[in-house]
Design brief:
Oligomer: single chain
Structural class: alpha+beta
CATH class of the largest domain: Mainly Alpha
Largest sheet: 6 strands, antiparallel, barrel
Helix content: 40-55%
Number of helices: 10
CATH superfamily of the largest domain: Methyl-accepting chemotaxis protein
Shape: elongated
Radius of gyration: 52 Å
Length: 435
C-alpha cells in the first residue's frame, strides 16, 4: 500500500507535467524585471547613501592661558605675604618672600634702581648719588653689589679726570701755536727771498763794475759776503720751517695715539661697568628665583592653603595659583593613530567625550580640526589641534568649567563616503591585486 502511494505521488499526471514544462513568458519577464528593479534600487540607494569613518583618538584640553601654579623654590619661613586671597594682581607682581639673609625690601629697591639705570655719565652720577646715602643689607648679593659700586666709581673717576682728553687739548693748542709761528716764519722767508734778490743784483752789478775797474775788489767781496749771509739765513729758516712741520706731524700722531688710548680706556671702564651690572642683575634674578614668589600673569590669586607669616614652606610645595583674567580660549591636542591619519584634514568636526564628565549625563563637546602635524611623534601618532567654536558647551547645553586640564577621547568625523564606493573598493582592490 505504501509503495503504491509513493509511486502515485512521485509521478505527476500528464496535465501537470504539461503545465510545468510550459512556463508562461510573461511570468519570466515579470520576474526578471522585478529583480532588475530591485538591483537598480539597491545601486541607487548605495549611490545616495553615504556615511563617514570615525577615527578615535586621545585628547587633552588646556586653556591657551592656563592657570599659573607658583611653587616654593627653597625651604624656609614666609617672612612677607604681600597679597591676600582672591586679590587681582598684574604680571610680575611680588606675592611672598621666603626667609633668606637679605632684607627683601632692600633687594627689591635695588632691583628697581637697576632697571631704571642708564649706562651714561649722567646715569652713573645719579646711581652713585642714590647708593652712597643708603645702607643696603643684601646678604649673598653684597659682594656683587660692592663690585658694581667699584665699577661705577672707576667709570665716574675716568669721566671726571679726563686725562687723555686734556692732553689732547694741550697738544691741539700746541699745534695752533706752531701754525701761528709757522706763518711768521713764512713771512720771514718771503722777506729773506726779497733780500736775496737784492743781494744778488748788487753782486752782479759789482761784478760787472769790477770787471770794468770801476769798483775795488774789496767792494766786490763785501757784496759777495752779503749775498752769502742772506743765503745762509734763508737756508737756516727753511730748515727751521721743515723741523716745525715735522714736529707738528709728530704732535698730530701723538694726538691720534692719545685718542686711541682714550677710547680703549673708555671701553675698558664701560665694559667693566656693564659686566658688573650684568653680574649683579644675574645674582638678583637668582635671588628672586629662590626666595621671591612672583605672579607670571595677570589674574586672581588663590592661596593654596592657610598660609600665614612665619609659616614654613618646603621646596616644591604649591603656595599660589593665579587664575588668568578675562576669557581664555580652550585648545585640544588629539593624538591621532597612524592608521587612518591620512583621512584627517583641517575643518573636520570632532565629538569630544571627557572622562570627568560622562557623556550620558553631560553630553559631548563639538570641536573642529584646526591643524595636523606634518610628522608623527616617536610612537607614530600625529598631533591634531582641535578648536571649539562653541567653547566648552556640550550638546546638552552644559558648560564645562574651564579650569585645569581636561582629558578624554575624541571622535574625528572624516569625509562622507558613498556606500556604493565602499562596496566597489574591495572588488577593485582584489581585481588589481590579481590582474
Amino acid at each position: 500500500m505504501n509503495k503504491h502511494n509513493t509511486k502515485k505521488y512521485a509521478m505527476p499526471s500528464e496535465q501537470v507535467q504539461e503545465v510545468m514544462s510550459n512556463v508562461p513568458g510573461g511570468l519570466i519577464r515579470w520576474g526578471i524585471s522585478l529583480i532588475t528593479i530591485i538591483i537598480l534600487l539597491v545601486l541607487v540607494g548605495a549611490w545616495f547613501f553615504k556615511y563617514p569613518d570615525i577615527i578615535r583618538s586621545e585628547i587633552t584640553i588646556n586653556m591657551e592661558q592656563s592657570p599659573a601654579v607658583i611653587k616654593a623654590r627653597s625651604t624656609g619661613k614666609i617672612v612677607a605675604l604681600l597679597v591676600t586671597n582672591q586679590a587681582v594682581v598684574e604680571a610680575n607682581t611680588a606675592l611672598a618672600v621666603i626667609e633668606n639673609p637679605a632684607v627683601y625690601t632692600d633687594v627689591l629697591w635695588l632691583d628697581t634702581c637697576l632697571s631704571k639705570m642708564h649706562l651714561t655719565e649722567a646715569g652713573v652720577k645719579q646711581s652713585i648719588a642714590s647708593f652712597s646715602d643708603t645702607l643696603l643689607r643684601l646678604g649673598a648679593l653684597q659682594e656683587p653689589f660692592s663690585n658694581y659700586i667699584v665699577a661705577l666709581e672707576d667709570y665716574q673717576r675716568y669721566q671726571t679726570i679726563e686725562y687723555h682728553k686734556r692732553k689732547i687739548q694741550l697738544k691741539e693748542d700746541q699745534i695752533k701755536a706752531r701754525k701761528l709761528h709757522l706763518l711768521e716764519m713764512m713771512e720771514q722767508r718771503r722777506l729773506l727771498k726779497a733780500q736775496l734778490s737784492n743781494a744778488e743784483a748788487v753782486y752782479r752789478r759789482d761784478s760787472a763794475l769790477f770787471a770794468k775797474g770801476v769798483v775795488s775788489e774789496e767792494a766786490l767781496e763785501t757784496s759777495k759776503n752779503n749775498r752769502l749771509k742772506v743765503l745762509q739765513s734763508l737756508s737756516a729758516l727753511n730748515a727751521t720751517i721743515k723741523e716745525s712741520e715735522v714736529e707738528t706731524t709728530q704732535i698730530q700722531d701723538n694726538i691720534l695715539d692719545l685718542d686711541q688710548d682714550d677710547r680703549e680706556q673708555e671701553s675698558h671702564y664701560s665694559q667693566a661697568l656693564r659686566r658688573a651690572h650684568q653680574q649683579l642683575r644675574a645674582q638678583l634674578k637668582a635671588w628672586q628665583q629662590a626666595y621671591l614668589l612672583v605672579s607670571p600673569i595677570k589674574g586672581t590669586v588663590n592661596l593654596m592653603g592657610n598660609w600665614s607669616l612665619n609659616q614654613n614652606v618646603i621646596e616644591g610645595e604649591t603656595v599660589f595659583t593665579i587664575m588668568p583674567s578675562g576669557l581664555s580660549t580652550p585648545i585640544g591636542k588629539a593624538l591621532v593613530p597612524t592608521t587612518g591619519s591620512g583621512k584627517v584634514i583641517p575643518g573636520q568636526w570632532v565629538q569630544v567625550h571627557l572622562n570627568n564628565y560622562p557623556d550620558k549625563e553631560f553630553g559631548f563637546i563639538k570641536g573642529m580640526v584646526r591643524s595636523l602635524s606634518d610628522v608623527p611623534l616617536k610612537d607614530g601618532q600625529y598631533v591634531a589641534e582641535i578648536v571649539f567654536p562653541d567653547g566648552l558647551t556640550t550638546n546638552y547645553s552644559y558648560t564645562i568649567p574651564a579650569q585645569g586640564t581636561l582629558s578624554g577621547y575624541a571622535d574625528i568625523i572624516t569625509e562622507d563616503v558613498r556606500l556604493l564606493k565602499r562596496i566597489v573598493m574591495p572588488v577593485t582592490r582584489l581585481v588589481k591585486k590579481h590582474y
